[in-house]
# Entry
Amino acid sequence: MKIVVAIRQVPERGARLRVNAAGNAIDEDGLQWGPNEPDAYALEHALALRAAAGGEVLVLSVGPERASSVLRDALAKGADRAIHVLAADLDALAVARILAAIARQESADLLLTGLQSEDMGYGQTPVLAAGLLGVPHVTLALDIARTEAGLRVTRELEEGWRQSVELPLPAVVAVQAGGIALSYATLMGIKRARSKELRTVAATELGLALEPSLVIERLTPPVKTRSTQLLEGAPDQAAAALIAKLRNEVHVL
Amino acid sequence: MSNVLVVLESRGATLTHASLEALTAAHRLGSPITVVVVGADTAALASRAAQHNVARVVRVEHALLVSYSADAWTAALDPLIRAEEPAFVLFPHSYQARDFAPALAVRFHQMLVSDVVAIDAGPVFLRPVYEGRLLAACRIATAAPGFVSVQAGAFAAAEPGSGAAPIEIFTPDLAPSVLRTHSGEPFRAGGSAVDLTSAARIVSVGRGIQSEERLPMVRELAEALGAELAASRPVCDAGWVSADRQVGSSGQTVAPRLYLALGISGATQHLQGMRGSGCIVAINRDPDAPIFEVADYGIVGDLFELVPAITRALRSA
# Structure
């Protein structure tokens, strides 16, 4: 089975984000970057499927030059080869067009990726790609198993419910975080990764329509829905102040 | 005239609250508003929908729509949208809509403007980005129809009014071969679920706890407060707290009198599960964490110093 895993590079969790001078994107100066977490889970599922059923795991990232680091990490964790599509600031539809084009080029049996990115959070790129490819999809996957007819996927529903879905290949599966353990690259893996293929191609060379469908006009801090009273001081002082508030003002103790 | 379609969702015989919130959002985009109910037998849902001050109700009805599937929903709604030529099609930003609405949008060479929390004149759509740390104002750059999903809790649910809108039936031409996936019955993950929804006080722990070894101090605080222990998704994913204590859209939706969020940054999916709490206290190292947007009281600082300090303060008082 040939599996393409799409991995997006996003700012590291908890990074201080500032809006750029133009007001419509973040200022990337001094930011640390890493893989989008649900995409990291997608890679683990791909490696597990390869271990169980054989085949090849190709990792793909769409992004500027810095994005190649998530591909190198994925190769070190065990992916077989990588494609970096050089592009900046594409919306979900443009990225989906690229994922679909590569999946088609590679005759992939399965396109796996996280269900949502931690940056723009459109939460739809895999479903758009499935539509473009004309293949079935499953979202919110927690467990993926190969069957004779294709795949059996356990998907998450709302409020603690789950569901099992059977589907044929080729297919697109959007992975939810948490269904499988994340691995770390070993020294041996990092060493092996150096000899693996990492091909770079410019998005503009793919002959796709990549003009924006959605234009971000500005980024602002979110609107506060409650006014937060900040309690300051040393830990013991802040703690005592909090207990006093909860007891005497909110009456919840 | 900018005709707006709203695709409603149901659970059993009732329309979901999130659907009625999407209907409220539709009023900001134009009129007339047509609401759509989808299923194998939608008579009861349609008559409920008809009471919500809308121009029309369309029942998209077919035997293959007896239970939800992305394939059938997409194939059934596609011809309706082509016939209606709406300016916008709205959905609640539910798990279900996220599963099929993008597949529908892409058939019209569109993406979904997802997770919208407000709509300004233009229309300019406001949606959270960077896990709720920033808000993006976006404009659709393509021709109609625009596809939009509305975050739960962002708009007040539409109330039923007087009068009943006309109801029409739309029968899509669906063949069984349209269904490429086959879904089993939903089942509960794990065994017996802990019911957090009736808890008066909840102490909830997030990624900031860093390791399982730090959990005992949180349990002690919960005990001193007489509170139930809960956690955000990453802590449950790591297996440090059992999944049946997860708060958020994929776990339980709670509204205790006191919600103490420890080291929880406040991703949208978590906020949706607890923003209805009476008093929200957030403790986090990061002053920019989105949890502070919903908190009544906040302490910016080190969890590992503050949690034992609060437990001591409770015990000594």
